[in-house]
Amino acid sequence: MVINETGEIQALTLTKGNVDDRKPVPKLTEKLTGLLFGDKGYIKKELFAKLFDRGLKLVTKVKKDFTILINPQLGLSSDFERLAHSWNIEVKILGCYLRDVAVELFALKKALLKNEIDVFRFARRARKLRKRTRYYLKEIFHLPEVIGASRVAKNILKSERMMWKFLDDPENIPLTNNHAEQQIRHYVVYCKNSYFTQSKRGNAFLERIISLYLTWKQRGLNPFQNLLSIVSHTT
After folding, report:
1. DSSP state letters, 20-53
2. What is the pLDDT of residues 41-55, one digit of tens each?
3. How crowded is the C-beta side of 124, counted as CA atoms within 13 Å?
4. Which residues contact 212 (CB under 8 A, 6 or more apart)?
5. Complete DSSP assignment for 135-187
């Protein structure tokens, strides 16, 4: 459903439970331009780019469990982009700086993956970017009369340590948790379609089984045989 600022319905469609909520968005918004606000479930690189190319900018909040920026045009960059277009000139300048940091960070990661730079150089440069990011966010947070921007900066600073977790092991810890999100997507859809398990105990059981299954699968082990082994040793 798409509504305008006064709550009037602009477009509406119904889909099956296993259909990605983002799939009908391009068609629903084909006649719209400007800003489109949605929840965190609408974060997707391809969707953002497709809408942006025809003059519609998708604005979403940040997923709390995201390690860092998803893409120079997504995730935290949505917040950086809003800051860069603030009516307040100081916030606008700092927002542009933050946006540049995001672009540079992903350029560094790309260079690392292509072996154009080594891990030491990547980590050293990323730490400098971290200091710059923290400085810019603190500056925004302490600015008077910009409550909205200050709140955004404060929320990002709360997750600052988690955001830069990849610096602990740049070669093995990715910038994002996209891979993990993709791994559990099938089971999130399953839970929606099955109306969950109707109890906390059932939810806990399902979470553990899915976690074990995916771990075994990632390690190239047979999930059924491993689960059978556990059951046989506990009975």
Report:
1. -TTTTHHHHTTT--EEEE--GGG--HHHHHHHHH
2. 777 767 777 777 677
3. 5
4. 223, 226, 227
5. HHHHHHHT-TT-HHHHHHHHHHHHTHHHHTGGGGSTTTS-SS-HHHHHHHHHH
Q: 159 is written with which tokens?
A: 């997750």
The pLDDT tens digits of the residues spanning 149-178 come to: 888 888 888 888 888 888 888 888 887 766
Pairing verdict, β 2-3 and 9-11: antiparallel
- pLDDT over 70 percentage in the chain: 84
Residue of 97, 92, 119, 98 whose CA lies nearest to 108: 119
Q: Looking at the predicted structure, is the pLDDT value of residue 138 above 70?
A: yes
**Using CA atoms, how far apart are residues 75 and 45, in angstroms rounded to an integer?**
9
pLDDT at 125: 93
Given a cut of 50, whether residue 65 has pLDDT beyond it is: no
User: What per-residue confidence (pLDDT) applies to 72?
Assistant: 37
Contacts of 103 (CB under 8 A, 6+ apart): 72
Query: Going by C-beta distance under 8 Å and a sequence separation of 6 or more, which residues neighbour residue 173?
Result: 67, 165, 166
Q: Other C-beta atoms within 10 Å of 142: how many?
A: 10
Question: End-to-end alpha-carbon separation of the chain, Å?
Answer: 51
Evaluate whether 36 touches 51 at the Cβ level (below 8 Å). yes
Whether the CB-CB separation of 129 and 105 falls below 8 Å is answered with: yes
